[in-house]
Structures are given as C-alpha cells and as structure tokens.
Batch of 2 targets.
Target 1
Amino acid sequence: MILKGLCGCYIIPGISHDFNNILACILGYNEINTEIISDIKDDVLKAEIENNTKQIASAGQRAVMLIDKMMIYARQDTQTDIINVRPTSEIIEEVLEMLRPALTSRLKLEFDNNLGLPLISVLSKGSNLPTQIEINAIDLHQIITNLAINARDAMKNQIGFIRISLRHVVMSEVHCIACAAIMNGDFIELAVTDNGTGIDPKHIRRIFDPFFTTKPVGEGTGLGLSTTMGLVHSANGHIMIDSDLTGISKGTSFKLLFPVPVIN
C-alpha cells in the first residue's frame, strides 16, 4: 500500500508530465504536416499522408485521455462515475484501422459483429438485447489494442489471422480466469482470437500478474494484460481464455464477458 501511494503521488505525475511534453512535440509536428498537405501535387501521396496524419492525431488524443486517467488515479479523484460510451463496433473499426499499417501482409485482420441478432434466454425472454458494451470508450480502445498486439506478437512470422468478434451469449456456472468469479446469465462477448503459438497452461494463471511476461527482455513490460484485466473488471466484466498449443485449433482466444441489463 505504501508503494502504491508513492507511485500515485510521485512517479505517475512525473511520468505524465514528461509524456505530455513528448506528445505535444509529436502532435505539433503532425499539425505542421497537416497544414502543408495542400501543397502536395501527387494525389495518391496526398491521400496517404492525410490518412497518416489523421491516425497520428487520433492516437495522440487517446494518449492525452490516458494521461488524464493516470492523473485521476494519482490524485485518487472520486469523480470517476461519468463514462463516455460509444458504439462498440465503431471503436473496434478504429482499432483495426490503426493496427493494419503495423501488421505484415501475412496477417489478416477480421471483424465479426453478431450483436444485431436476438438472444433467446430465460433472462431476456426473447427480447433484442443492447448492441454496445457499457464501458468508457478510451478503456475499450485500450483493451482491444492490448489484446490485438498480443495476438500479433504470438503470430511471429507465420501466416495467420487475428479475429475480433462480438456476440450475445448465455452463461451458466462458468468462472472468470482472472478472479474466479462465477458467471451466470446474459452477456456481450468480445473475443480476440488468433491462430498463433498458444499459451502454455502453466502460464495461464500468471499472465494477468503485473510485470509477468514470457517475451524476451526488452520486448514486453508485462503490464498489458494486467491493465486489460483491471479495465475489464472496472466495467463489471470478466475474462475466459481458450488456448491450444497444438492441432488444428492451435492459437488463443481471449473472451471478455460484459453483463447485459435485463430488458422487460
């Protein structure tokens, strides 16, 4: 607790301040590039640079919002009840657009959205359920990005796919892999699936521990999944993992389950 307090009071504000300065420089030069785009005569090059500057600006603004959240944590601010909820599919499309340039041609990004379909269950009584997750947009963006990057790293140099999917599911007596809570009822399932190397069973229980990583030194901080778990739990969600090291089903699927309110 003492260490946590010291991190909140001293380390986070200092890092946030320095990070803000770096961001200001990046966004400033990006703004200069935006202003000179009109001088470019090559239409193909012009369109590409326009898209690139747009992505940089969007990523920069998300980083600014993330810093704001870090500062809220450092101040132990209690006014965190207001959330900015946006359509889930819209956020996923943003993440896909941001990630595609960072992937090789060997990897295929897919998005299956099945939230528009009705779910028949005891709780919903056949009603159409909500089609978006009740979670802060910036948090959902970070969750999907973390899981997609992990999936990319698991693929290494092989040919494969990363699939993000949404659907309604009904759960009965299943356990969260991160906190062991029992889940029952209607949920929105957000899954990130790959056909990469899979996760060794002996590591499954530890992958959400802060600073735990199986990546080589310098390639991972061990904070991505720990952060993801915290964000999912803060939205009253839970996590399941299917992973196979061999066979035709080789790969990993992170399934995030977010509760659905009962609709009368």
Target 2
Amino acid sequence: MTSDDQENPEFNLDSEDVLLAPGEPLKIVRREPQIPYPLHTHSFAELVIILSGTGHHRVAGQLLPIAAGDVFVILGNRAHGYEDLSELYLVNLFFDPAILEARTYDLSRLPGFHALFTLEPQWRGEGDVTSHLKLDSTRLDKAMNLIERIEDEIKCGEDGYRYMAVVHFMRLAGELSRWYSGAQHPGARRLSRIGAAIGYLEQHLDEAVTLDELTGLADLSASTLNRAFRRAVGLPPLAYHLRLRIRRAGDLLRTTDLSVTEVAGLTGFDDANYFARQFRNVMGLSPSVYRIKAG
C-alpha cells in the first residue's frame, strides 16, 4: 500500500459494522489475538492498549512497530489498519470524543493529556511521531484494572451504568495523561511541551495571554509554536485562546444575568466595545442579540 491508500480506506465502520451504538459513550473490544485488518475509518475515537505480541500499525502511509505496553489514540477520521502480526493481543476502547470535551476540571493542566488525546493522534505516523507512551507491567496492570471496571459496568447494564463507565474512563484518561507527562522519550517531551501550552490557554480564560508566555512555557520558538497549534487546533495560539474566551463569554451570557461589561471583564477584556466586536467576529452575533436568542 502507498500513502495514497490513506485517503481511500477499504471501508468505514459506521455502516453495518457499528462498534459504538448510538447513545453509548463507550465500548470495549478485546482482540485475542488481533487479526490483520485493512485500512478503515470510523466516526468515534479509539484508545488502543497493546497487551502482548508484536505487529505493525499502518497510518499516514507509514508502518509503525507496536508491542506490549504501547498505548495510542486513533481519531476516527484517520484511516488505519494492522499488518505483520505475531500473537498480538490488544484492547480497543471505542469512545465518543465528546466525553473529553465535557468539563474536565484541571485534567487539561496535565501536558500529557493534550499530547496523548490531541496531538499524537493527529500527527501519528508523521515524522518521528509514534507511540510515545509505553507502560511497564505495573502500569499496564493498573490500566487493565480500570478497563475491567468499565467492562463490568457495560455488561451489568444497571441504571447509571453509562455514567459509571465514563467515570472509570476518565480515571483511565487521567492516569495515562500523568504517565505521558512523565515520559522521557524526546518525542513525548516535545509533544508534552506543546500540550502544556494548550492546557495553559484553556485554564486562563479570564485574562489575555502573550505569545512570549507560551513560547517560554513550551520552550519553542514563536514560529514553531504557531505551526504546531495550526496543526493541532486549526488556529495560531492567540487566536485559539481568543476563541476559547469568547465561547466562555457565550456560556456566561447564556447562563447568568451578568451584564455584557461584567462578562467582558470575566473573560479578560478591559474594553467592552472591543469585546463586542470580537464576540461578533467569532459568534456572528452581538453579545446582546446572542443572549436574547440563546434565552
């Protein structure tokens, strides 16, 4: 296969082979062993934990070696498959990406969170980006304990099982993010620095942030950081931060009785008129009209 095959996967798993049913946030499938699998896509995201054996993961036109302890995330829009397998046992955890877009408190403060769930999935197979998180036996056992708790909730099907399964999934995401943050692989450290910059912006929606702050945090040049952000979130860092602040302002306008000037101040805008212009640029409506329509 050539890199062109990435744009022409053999099939999509969202048709008759539905793996994540509508309304279900999670599903776990154990591959014991995994069989060779052609290029495919799907709308859900996929967390893969390799339990034993070896093989190759095809993505972005590259064949990446995989082995016990490797952990990686695949976004549904990326064609991928498995080849050259030797007793490869793995766990697939299919999940709705919206889970990680919900309120996660300070999870995004962990540099490894965005590195594992945002950056590496988009860049996997490009340059030196491969599986930078590798678990030792102790951590693999801990991860599998949480996987089993998710499985138990899904199998029992009692009222509240979806919520409880997601709780255990978020615990797993937190542990993996912490481990990734501490990884010493040069590639992992580079992605974690970029992840730290993304997390910093997401945690500072009440003030403006300078590019100098971010380059110092990520230890990268402004041009490198700009390119990384464009690839990761589609915008340069300060434009991404502005959009986050405006969206936060929209939440406040929709859910509180605060004045437009007060909302502007709480999202880091000293000038209410400037805030209103930026709000209209992002949301397509003035703050006042947005509040009326949202109400």
